[in-house]
Design goal:
The chain is α+β, with helices and mostly antiparallel strands. The chain has three helices and four strands, in the order E-E-H-H-E-E-H. The protein has a four-stranded antiparallel β-sheet. The termini are far apart.
């Protein structure tokens, strides 16, 4: 299962949450935080990183719909074109009748 870091800034009320594609991208954006330290917290021990300014935790990404929440509906594929012989199509008559509308 894939996970991404969810960052909660305690001192930024206007934009308190940020989601990064990887922990490395977060550390490149904010040089005050060490990648190795955060990686030890989040990956091995699965403990969220928490201090007076920030709370970081790994959140799992749901890649597929959860089974059992909605009854599975059978989907039907319907062709979008009609198959007829060329001389029986009468498309010219239909085209001119639509132009008159």
């Amino acid at each position: 299962m894939k996970s991404q870091p969810l960052v909660h800034w305690k001192n930024k009320p206007e934009n308190p949450y940020e989601v990064f594609s990887s922990l490395k991208k977060f550390c490149l954006s904010y040089h005050d935080y060490n990648y190795n330290t955060l990686n030890n917290y989040l990956s091995k021990a699965k403990i969220p990183y928490n201090n007076q300014d920030i709370f970081i935790e790994q959140k799992n990404i749901i890649l597929k719909p959860k089974p059992g929440l909605l009854p599975m509906q059978k989907r039907n594929i319907v062709p979008a074109v009609r198959k007829v012989l060329l001389h029986k199509a009468a498309d010219e008559k239909k085209r001119f009748s639509l132009l008159a509308i």
